[in-house]
Design a protein that fits this description.
- 82% of the residues lie in helices and 0% in strands.
- It is mostly helical and 409 residues long.
- The chain folds into two domains: 1-193, MFS general substrate transporter like domains (Growth Hormone, Chain: A, Up-down Bundle); 198-391, MFS general substrate transporter like domains (Growth Hormone, Chain: A), CATH 1.20.1250.
- Helix 14 (273-294) runs antiparallel to helix 18.
Length: 409
């Protein structure tokens, strides 16, 4: 596809189709947290057992992202997106109709297989649809669907689940998936398969130290967000003094922060990617550390939650673009694995936050865990930039070195 085609009026609609798919995936990922008591009651299982549909989904994303990306290396990217949306619809329908808890868990696992690769392949497609100077912005536009899901989809899905039953929530999400599938089929162009695209080349890209550093920044940086947000309910009710009913709108506020951060992260990452990472990761570490103090005041706590969402999600477009840039020529697998890295960071941070609480520390202690994780990601960003500068200097030195002249005999 030539540049004129990429800038045609149809391309924003293609990005919209990807954003609709992202909205559905974001809704199905997070809505279950508000429906766990209903689900546990229907199947007569404990809340911790019902929680398997959350942890099982996260595990499915981490494992499924590279597996489905590898399987898709022989297929066109649009074809793979259609297959993934089909899996998404199937998984949610199975969840809506599940006669037993095991079948519900199976439905969640099937749905999770679509998650990582959809965002991974979708990021590659979004970047290919625009000029190089707008890649991060295009990626951010797709991820807007995920952020809006936390503002609209999750609260609405939770309300529907409480009002008419959680099965209707999953049924509605399946309908969203059908809309997303139709959008991808009709609006996303059939991009040609890249020349030389092979599984061996995709795997080889994972050996690039810059790709690995970007993935590590993803795990640690976004993990810092979930160290705090996972325990937001007991922190806000037990420390800030909010009523239990206030947690919902506080999470919506967090979603608003994610939405704004995603837009700003995409816009400024196209102008100065690494400085944007320094600013957001450093700001995130500082705000998380301050949350141990601001959590004791209702107003300051609300402002801090907004900032955590904003700074945390402002790292997503630049980190995803960093992976695409460094895995140039073979980005699909690396991009999908980086989406899994977000979920790995979430799981790791939630576990570490639970460890410090179980050790007898207060509900604000996970904020320190988050600050240390985000600070570690910032250190890796500086290391990544230093290694890149050193490699560039070495290449320039080789290019300007005089060519030895062999004397004639």
């Amino acid at each position: 596809m030539n540049q004129a085609d990429r800038r045609s009026p149809a391309f924003p609609l293609a990005l919209l189709a990807l954003a609709i798919g992202a909205f559905g995936i974001g809704t199905t990922e997070f809505v279950v947290m508000g429906l766990l008591p209903d689900i546990a009651g229907d199947y007569d299982v404990s809340i911790p057992t019902a929680g398997w549909i959350v942890s099982g989904y996260a595990l499915g994303v981490v494992v499924g992202a590279p597996v489905t990306a590898i399987l898709g290396t022989r297929l066109g990217r649009k074809t793979m997106l259609l297959i993934l949306m089909g899996l998404f619809v199937l998984g949610n329908l199975l969840a809506a109709l599940a006669p037993t808890f095991v079948v519900l868990l199976l439905g969640r696992l099937i749905t999770s297989l679509a998650h990582g690769s959809f965002f991974g392949i979708g990021s590659v497609v979004a970047a290919e649809l625009v000029a190089p100077s707008k890649k991060a912005g295009a990626i951010a536009f797709m991820f807007t669907g995920l952020t809006v899901a936390n503002i609209v989809g999750v609260p609405l899905g939770t309300y529907v689940g409480h009002a008419v039953g959680w099965r209707m929530t999953f049924g509605g999400i399946a309908v969203l998936g059908v809309i997303g599938l139709i959008g991808v089929a009709t609006l996303v162009p059939a991009l040609p398969r890249p020349e030389g695209a092979r599984l061996r080349r995709e795997v080889a890209a994972l050996g690039n130290i810059q790709v690995l550093l970007a993935m590590a920044m993803t795990v640690l940086g976004f993990g810092g967000v979930f160290a705090a947000i996972t325990y937001i309910a007991p922190m806000m009710t037990g420390v800030a003094g909010y009523a239990e009913g206030s947690v919902t709108w506080l999470l919506v506020l967090f979603g608003v922060g994610m939405f704004l951060g995603n837009i700003l992260g995409g816009r400024y990452a196209d102008r100065a990617l690494m400085p944007m990472l320094y600013l957001t990761l450093g700001g995130l570490a500082l705000v998380l550390a301050l949350f141990t103090l601001t959590a004791h005041n209702k107003v300051l706590a609300a402002v801090t939650i907004l900032l955590i969402g904003g700074l945390g999600f402002a790292t997503v477009p630049p980190l995803q673009k960093r992976v695409l840039d460094q895995a140039h020529g073979a980005p699909t697998l690396a991009s999908a694995i980086n989406i899994g890295a977000f979920n790995l960071g979430n799981a790791l941070a939630a576990w570490l936050g639970g460890v410090v609480i179980a050790a007898g520390l207060s509900y604000t202690a996970p904020n320190w865990v988050g600050a240390l994780l985000a600070g570690s990601a910032l250190a890796l960003a500086f290391l990544s930039a230093a290694l890149e500068r050193r490699a560039g200097h070495a290449a320039a030195t080789r290019a300007t070195a005089p060519v030895p002249v062999t004397a004639e005999r």
